[in-house]
């Protein structure tokens, strides 16, 4: 496919900008595409198209909007293998990991979002007045590279269903699947300008969007660092802003709990996307007098994950997504050793000349004040931290600047009691497993706002009080 194009106002156009950005396959370092580094004219065109489209889209019958999103979902089902192949190449996933969790759950989420909006009351009678919910206007959706399709879907589908229009800027590292999504929009025949795609770096194109006078909402998912800048710029222009940021989530194994289950679930979150999942349970909190047994279990289970070339076999965990990630994760592993943590499985990654491969690393004897316990490493690195008693476990779990997710494995009543005291936006208890029907987002530095669930729609609606 020729990627030197943008999708604006219902058609593919050549960018005004002559600059391009290379997209690299992290599994072999081949350059697989070049995308436009959009300039101000390109961004203006996209925002103007979205603004014009909003004039009619906001009043479009809800059933018509739902019908179009259903058609989009069906077209995406037709294209799901293509999208998975693209994600294999741009993110370094094996085919099965590209399909699930990268593609299929988000196509399913579209059906959940449709169900939510069908039952949503846009007007509510109150005591002597009415509250009416109305869309904002143009939404700039700025997304990260780690779930290149999913993070887009979580923003744009609720935003569109309630009558906003979109300018999407995907991550410049994994922008290609967004092109296939734009093709689906094109095929389905959404009104011109309802969905627009621009590409480029965050510091340039993302910044232009956050500063654009005709952007009404900035919906951002990414790093805390990026979120701070996006938040600042958006607030300067009095825009609504939502921030979905990073995490350093704890999984607490309580005495008497199912350790097998807890370790399996924690390791899946830390390893399956090579550690590049915002809600991964990277801190494993374990009772101090059962540390040795748990360490052995963690190591034995870690050995079962196959890391390597994602094209070589199914269910193999691929490389990190970029050189930046490789260097960052490597330096954290070194830092962990310097800080006195004990590496009981894994090694310091050596060479990235043939791809950004990093195997799983298990650290024990980690204390919660170490950098490896405090910072989001975003690699396949898990830290075992001991606690003395339940209160100590809660204290350690909450002793973090983040608050995205957490998990508790233990006897039901005690596990619920502990879960209620964890300061995080999503908690799983024992067999529990999150879905997109529920809100997702962070406490503390993990963000402002929610995606998914009813709250994920309300992020794109403002309230009008009507007295009559
Ligand atoms: P990032 O902050 O570098 O970039 C995210 C997006 O924002 C990209 O599209 C980027 O181009 C753009 N951007 C960067 N700086 C910008 C600026 N100043 N103005 C406007 N746009 C800007 O993050 P990343 O490395 O792509 O993603 C990884 C991070 O995302 C991790 O911290 C991860 O935890 C987080 N994340 C959070 C969630 C969540 O739902 N909470 C989900 C996925 C990823």
TrEMBL record:
Matches recorded under SUPFAM superfamilies: ALDH-like (SSF53720)
Enzyme nomenclature, EC number: 1.2.1.3
Gene3D superfamilies: Aldehyde Dehydrogenase, Chain A, domain 1 (3.40.605.10), Aldehyde Dehydrogenase, Chain A, domain 2 (3.40.309.10)
InterPro entries: Ald_DH/histidinol_DH (IPR016161), Ald_DH_C (IPR016163), Ald_DH_CS_CYS (IPR016160), Ald_DH_CS_GLU (IPR029510), Ald_DH_N (IPR016162), Aldehyde_DH_dom (IPR015590)
Active site as annotated: 244
Superkingdom classification of source: Bacteria
Catalyzed reaction equations: an aldehyde + NAD(+) + H2O = a carboxylate + NADH + 2 H(+)
Enzyme class: oxidoreductase
Pfam families: Aldedh
Keywords of this entry: Oxidoreductase
Domain Aldehyde dehydrogenase: 12-466
One function term, GO molecular function aspect: aldehyde dehydrogenase (NAD+) activity
Matching PANTHER family: ALDEHYDE DEHYDROGENASE, ALDEHYDE DEHYDROGENASE-RELATED
Similarity remark: Belongs to the aldehyde dehydrogenase family.
Record's protein name: aldehyde dehydrogenase (NAD(+))
Organism, scientific name: Senegalia massiliensis
């Amino acid at each position: 496919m020729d990627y030197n194009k943008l999708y604006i106002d219902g058609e593919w156009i050549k960018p005004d900008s002559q600059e391009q950005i290379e997209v690299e396959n992290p599994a072999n370092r081949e350059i697989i595409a070049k995308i436009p580094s959009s300039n101000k004219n390109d961004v203006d065109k996209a925002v103007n198209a979205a603004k014009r489209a909003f004039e009619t889209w906001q009043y479009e019958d809800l059933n018509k909007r739902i019908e179009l999103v259903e058609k989009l979902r069906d077209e995406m089902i037709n294209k799901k293998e293509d999208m998975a192949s693209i994600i294999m190449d741009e993110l370094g996933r094996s085919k099965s990991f590209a399909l699930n969790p990268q593609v299929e759950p988000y196509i399913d989420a579209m059906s959940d979002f449709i169900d939510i909006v069908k039952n949503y009351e846009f007007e509510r009678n109150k005591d002597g007045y009415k509250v009416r919910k109305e869309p904002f206007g143009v939404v700039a959706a700025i997304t990260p590279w780690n779930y290149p399709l999913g993070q887009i879907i979580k923003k744009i589908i609720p935003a569109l269903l309630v009558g906003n229009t979109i300018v999407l800027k995907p991550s410049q590292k994994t922008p290609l699947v967004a092109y296939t999504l734009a093709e689906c929009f094109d095929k389905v025949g959404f009104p011109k300008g309802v969905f627009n795609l621009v590409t480029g770096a965050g510091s340039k194109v993302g910044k232009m969007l956050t500063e654009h006078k005709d952007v009404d909402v900035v919906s951002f998912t990414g790093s805390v660092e990026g979120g701070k800048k996006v938040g600042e710029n958006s607030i300067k222009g009095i825009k609504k802003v939502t921030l979905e940021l990073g995490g350093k989530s704890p999984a607490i194994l309580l005495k008497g709990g199912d350790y097998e289950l807890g370790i399996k679930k924690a390791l899946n979150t830390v390893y399956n996307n090579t550690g590049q999942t915002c809600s991964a349970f990277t801190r494993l909190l374990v009772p101090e007098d059962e540390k040795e047994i748990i360490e052995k279990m963690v190591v034995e289970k870690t050995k079962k994950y196959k890391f390597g070339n994602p094209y070589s076999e199914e269910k193999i965990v691929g490389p990190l997504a970029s050189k930046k990630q490789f260097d960052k994760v490597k330096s954290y592993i070194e830092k962990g050793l310097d800080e006195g943590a004990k590496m009981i499985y894994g090694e310091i990654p050596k060479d990235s000349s043939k791809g950004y491969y990093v195997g799983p690393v298990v650290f024990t004897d980690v204390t919660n004040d170490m950098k490896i316990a405090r910072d989001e490493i975003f690699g396949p690195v898990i830290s075992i931290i001991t606690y003395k008693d339940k209160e100590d476990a809660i204290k350690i779990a909450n002793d973090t600047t983040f608050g995205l997710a957490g998990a508790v494995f233990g006897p039901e009543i005690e596990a619920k009691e502990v879960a209620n005291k964890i300061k995080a936006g999503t908690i799983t208890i024992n067999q529990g497993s999150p879905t997109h029907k529920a809100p997702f987002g962070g406490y503390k530095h993990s963000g402002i706002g929610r995606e998914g669930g009813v709250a994920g729609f309300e992020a794109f609606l403002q309230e009008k009080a009507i007295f009559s």
